[in-house]
Each structure stands twice: as structure tokens, then as C-alpha cells.
Amino acid sequence: MTTKTEDLDRLILEALDEDDRGILAELGEEPGYFAQAFGLFSGKLAWVMWIAYIVNIIGAGLAIWAAWKMFQTTDPVMTMRWGIAILVAVNVGLFMKGGLGLQMQNNRILRELKRVELQLARAQARESV
């Protein structure tokens, strides 16, 4: 994080009352990369993530198989065909990885929005009392 971001975080924490600080401490820090990655496979869109991951594995397997075949052939036309198959399989894998990464980013944003929503709801509850 940059210094400005750390200063902003410090100012936000100072502005919160003791109850809000306690809730933020309970929620803890942002989960690590692997916790976020494995978190993709649970929830409402878990089935979509599983399909994307399986297609990614299939694409990697096809790319390896096509590379093996490409280096086994001596015909230049077949070498080109296998090379194109490698490119297609790698592109499918990269596309699926991109989708998984975007969903992970969406989950991070939603988690932070829920924290803000919780703070707003608590502030409204305090004002109404």
C-alpha cells in the first residue's frame, strides 16, 4: 500500500467508534490469495467456477497433447495445424483464468461493500435511538 492509502486507513479507523473498531477487528484482514481462490468454488456461482476450472484443465491438457503431436510430426502442414491447436487451447485456458480472476476481484469488491453497508446500518441505528 502507498503511504497515502495507509494514512487514509488510519484516519478512517480513528473516526470509527469503539464498537465499529471491534466489528472490523472481528472481520479481520482481507483473506490471502489462496483463500480467495478457493472461495471461488463455494457460493451461488460455484458451479460456474467449477466448469471454468475444468475447461481450463482440459485446455491445458489439449495444449500439452498438441505440443507432443507437433514435435512428433515431420510434415510442415501438420506441424502448423498442431501449432494452431496449441494456440487455441492456450487461449481457451487464458480466457477461463481471466474469468476466474475477474470473479475473485468481484468477490473482493462485494466484501468491502458489505463492510461499508454494515457501518452505514450501524450509524443509522445509532442516530434513530
How would you sum up this structure, described in words?
The protein has about 130 residues and is mainly α. It folds into 2 domains: about 30 residues; about 100 residues. The chain has 5 helices and no strands. The longest helix has about 55 residues. The radius of gyration is 23 Å and the shape is elongated. The model has no long low-confidence stretch (mean pLDDT about 85).
Most strands sheet: none
Shape: elongated
- Poorly predicted parts: none
**How would you state the average pLDDT, rounded?**
84
Radius of gyration (Å)? 23 Å
Beta percentage is under 5%
In short:
With 129 residues, this protein is mainly α. It folds into 2 domains: 1-30; 33-128. 85% of the residues lie in helices and 0% in strands.
Descriptive keywords:
129 residues, mainly alpha
Secondary structure layout:
Blueprint: H1 3-15, H2 18-27, H3 33-39, H4 46-72, H5 76-128
